[in-house]
Amino acid sequence: MTKTDLIIIGGGPGGYGAAGYAARLGLDVIVIEQASVGGTCLNVGCIPTKTWSHEADILRARRTADPTATIDFQRVRRRQQEVIEQLRNGVETLLSAPSIRLVKGKAHFIDAHTVATDEETFEAKHIIIATGSEAKMPPIAITDTQRVMTSTELLAIDHVPESLVIIGAGVIGMEFASIFQTFGSKVTVIEYLKECLPTLDSDIAKRLRKSMEKRGIDFHMQAGVTAITANGVTFERKGKQQTVSAEAILIATGRKPCLENLRLEAAGIAFTAKGITVDEQMRTSCQGIYAIGDVNGQTMLAHAASMQAIIAVNNILGRTDHIDLSIMPSAIFTYPEAASVGLSEDFCEAKGMEYTCRKGFFRANGKAMAMEETEGMVKLIADSDGKVVGCHAFGAHSADMIQEISSLMCMGVTIEQLRDMVHIHPTLGEILHDTSMIS
Ligand code: NAI
Fold first, then answer.
1. Crossing angle of helices 13-24/302-316, nearest 10°?
2. Separation in Å, CA 162 to CA 26, 248, 272
3. Looking at domain 336-436, which of 2.60.120.260, 3.30.390.30, 3.30.470.30, 3.10.580.10 is its CATH number?
4. Tens digit of pLDDT for each residue in 129-161?
5. 425 is known as an active-site residue
6. Whose CA is nearest to atom 3 of ligand 1?
7. Whose CA is nearest to atom 14 of ligand 1?
8. How many angstroms does the Cα of residue 264 sit away from the middle of ligand 1?
9. What is the CATH number of domain 141-253?
10. Is the CB of 172 within 6 Å of ligand 1?
11. Atom of ligand 1 nearest to the CA of 300
12. On the CB side of 71, how many CA atoms lie within 13 Å of its CA?
């Protein structure tokens, strides 16, 4: 039996973030990881996808000079691997600190303070579960599994498929649709709901979808997939059945927490199909045990996991913090990019809130014109006291613009105060300032 202060199960952004922070604050930590450190984000998620979307940006830029330019996919794959390996080495270095031990293996609970792998048993007063999530398969008949992939398999593909059907117009579906359309695939997206990206302001989501449609992506909205066979993907729309065939099929219908094999019952940890139940301090129903990141099903975003890691470790050490997880910015790396923080206009309307919504457009901004990126819009939402409570946008670098609003929201800034803040000229950030000036 090996004793330590803190056991962390999972070495993704939540797990390695918690390990580094806890070690800096003096705890002895054991991290148990069954695969490569870095988790979904670094190995088969955010990082490789963003490497691909960057390559798509470069290809689009090249095409302005040479419309026949194509992608060298083997070069893209090499670069993707290089980026992953460089970042993974960084995480391994972080986890090689003297007070951290990285253990390879699959962990399961023995009791509330004991965790075991096949080789060794560990005991600690505090345990953090950070095992992440995996792709959720829709409850449909799949008789042709050869062409069916989740995002993990698609990121390992060795060529650009001639055609790609994507099931689900959520974050994963929309990012891959954008990337593969640029790489040269014929892309078709099939979505159950009326609009893509359900958490984004519907006005912004619609404009983004229309923009992607103009670029050649086919969307079938309000269409429920019923079967995947050798003939292709069959879906029902307005009572009619249609089948689309493709070389590759991506299932992007959501993700589910990785709970299997953890034997949570052995420690008496409460969970639902959505994830491990936690309170605001990331405490589970079992004293001393915390759950952070995708596995608690609260917000499936890498940066949410990183901040939840800090909350959990602070709680373990009896420290207070002022991290406000209700202000959670997020971005979708499509072309054009989209991003949001806080309330959407749809939400304010549905709740009958008193609010103001100011709309700003990229087309009048000097930097956007210079960049040939005039497509885009910002919606800035304030409550009845003028306090900024949300911002949803699409257009070049909207993630960076939303980051500014996110920081201002953390400070409780009003539209009036935003008006008094100098913005650099010429920048896309001026769109936010100009939008705040609208009375
Ligand atoms: P999602 O929940 O964002 O979207 C899934 C979509 O599939 C929904 O719109 C749903 O209506 C649709 N759908 C479900 N069943 C269907 C069916 N049978 N037929 C047609 N449509 C169907 O899930 P997604 O895109 O898989 O992403 C998973 C998680 O990963 C999300 O929580 C997301 O936030 C996170 N993620 C975040 C990224 C980022 O921040 N840039 C990038 C990639 C993933």
1. 30
2. 54, 8, 40
3. 3.30.390.30
4. 999 999 999 999 999 788 999 999 999 999 999
5. yes
6. 170
7. 253
8. 26
9. 3.50.50.60
10. yes
11. 32
12. 27
